[in-house]
Each structure stands twice: as structure tokens, then as C-alpha cells.
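Q&A log
Question type: sequence-to-structure
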Amino acid sequence: MVTIAEVVPSLLSGLEVPGVDNTLNLPVARRVVLLLVDGLGHELLREHAEHAPFLSSMAGRETSAGFPSTTATSIASIGTGLLAGEHGIVGYTFCVGDEVLNALTWSRVGDHRHDLRKALVPEVVQPHPTLFERAAAAGVAVSAVAPRDHRGSGLSRAALRGSWYRGVVGFGDLALAATAALRQDRSFCYAYHPDLDTIGHFYGPGSEEWLLQLEFVDSLAERIAARLPSGAVLAVTADHGMITTGERIDFDTEPLLWQGVRVIAGEPRVRYLHTESDEVLHVWREFLGDRADVLSREDAVEAGWFGPVGPLALDRIGDVVVAMKDTAVVVRSQAEPVLSKLIGIHGSRTPPELSIPVLWHVSP
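Response status: OK
Response body:
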């Protein structure tokens, strides 16, 4: 299946950017807005189409978020046109040398006040040129419209550099800023809306709160489309889907799982284990049984979970990769109390988590 890494190259194909291909066969235009709705899974949108009539009326196709199916990884794929094994943002949290990095806050895991942007320079952690840099170098006016407090963040610098950043605070200024970014010929705007994912985490996908937020998102997309100049394209995609949490296995209260584990990273649906013993793989595989796929790093790489894997990502993946199945999660009630209580969750390899939509509307 084609992946999220092909979305931006396909949209840039009509903007005279060298070295990009329209592998998704998206409409070609010289003015493009890409709206990424965090957490808008393909299966969720299809199941609740009546709450999103405009989005559901758009032309579209299904694609894959890539693994892990999590925001930091997918945004890096949007920005670079690469999957996790190449761009190296291999999850929500992962080891970079001796640090465990939270890629969303660019801080030390367990201490959000410990800013790691100096110690782990984002342009070094993710050194590949971004598609936005390449487009800007080719003369395209490239903008990113996203929450104001994301400006200058580690993830923005790692994945979105090369764009002119416009910080916004809500639906209204997002819609107006996205369309204003298309005033000149050969313009591309990446717009990001986070709240559907946040609502899903705390109330669950498909909850009344989530459905109302989906209606708001649908209205946002419709209003952006209505303000586009003639011939411009609005594309809508997501970074992952979401499931409702089922069984919780608590690493912090299960001593058997500690043995031989030097560092545990990742998130509840996908865990990276950096180990001191080869027995860890067998212990976790036996303990979790059919609740997870537990593979060595070598086997996960060989299976193609991360796409092509370069040396940048290899050590970050961990010696053992745990990808949860069905709805089970591995939580850390003491080290990650908020994360451990979330109702909606994502990150692993199930279709509801991996499957995302790519939708498009051409302004008449």
C-alpha cells in the first residue's frame, strides 16, 4: 500500500519541484492547501460519515500512516517524504544516545521542563532535507499554519523547516491563514489541526464529544474549500487513526517484565525495549502471547515495519519491538500516569490505526 510519505510529493508535482512524483494521482494545481487532521482515521471517517458530510463527499483514497502510527513519526514523514526507518523519528518517545526523547515536546521523558533542543539539535536528530526546503528552493511559497505554541518546537524544526510558519489559535484564524497563504502563484500551505486527536484520547473515538468535534472539523474543511481561489486544491489527510483502549498491562507493576530491560520507550501501543539480556524477547513474547507481535529489531526491520532502515534509525528502534494487537496496551501507571489512563489510543499496526484518508477538492 502507498503511504503518508507520498502525500506531499504528489501534491508538489504540479508546482515544478524537481524530483517529486505524483504516485497518488492527486489533482495537479499551482495552489495547494494540505490540511492534516490529527487522528482522522479512514475507518473512523467511513463509520461516522453522516457527521462529516463535506469530507465524505470529497474524492479520495485510503493510504497508510506507516509504523509507528503516531503523530511525531507521521509529521516527519509528511515533511520529509520518508518513513520512520529513514527519517529517524521512530515514535512518540525513543532513545537518542543516552537520552530518551519525547518527540512531541522535544524534552526528556518524564520531565517536560527539560528542553533538549540544545542537547539534541532537531536538525541533527532529523538531518534529511525537508520537502518544504526543496520546494522553497524551487521558488514555491511554502507556509505552515499550525498552533502558535508549536512555533520553533523541536518537531517543527525537524520536520517542517523550510516553511514560513504562521501560528494560529483556533478554527477561524486557521481557515483564513491557510487560504491567505495561496495568494501568489506556485504556493503550498500545510495546515494542521490537533483537537480531534485530543478529544479522542480523553473521551474515545466515536464518543459524543468526538463526533461533535468531527462535525467542527468537517465545517473547517468546507470553509477552507469555499475560500480557495479558482483551480486551487484542498487536500485532507491524517497522521493515524485511533482505537478504544482495551486490556491494560502495567509494566510498572509487573516485575517479570522488568528483567533485562535497560530502557523502555515508545508508547502504550508500541514499545521499544533496550535490553541487557537476550531472554527479554522470549519473556515478553510468552507473557503477552497473542496480545502482541514481539520481534527482535532485526526481524522487525526485515519484515519492513519501518520501511527502508538506515543507520540513523537503527539504534533508536530498540533491541525488541512490541506491537500490540487488538486493543491491548502496555502502560506505565507510575512513570506515565496520564498516558496510562487514555481512552483512545494509537501507535501500532492494526488497520484502524494505520489506515488514513487522502481526500481532495478542486475549487471551481
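Response note: The chain has a mean pLDDT of 97.
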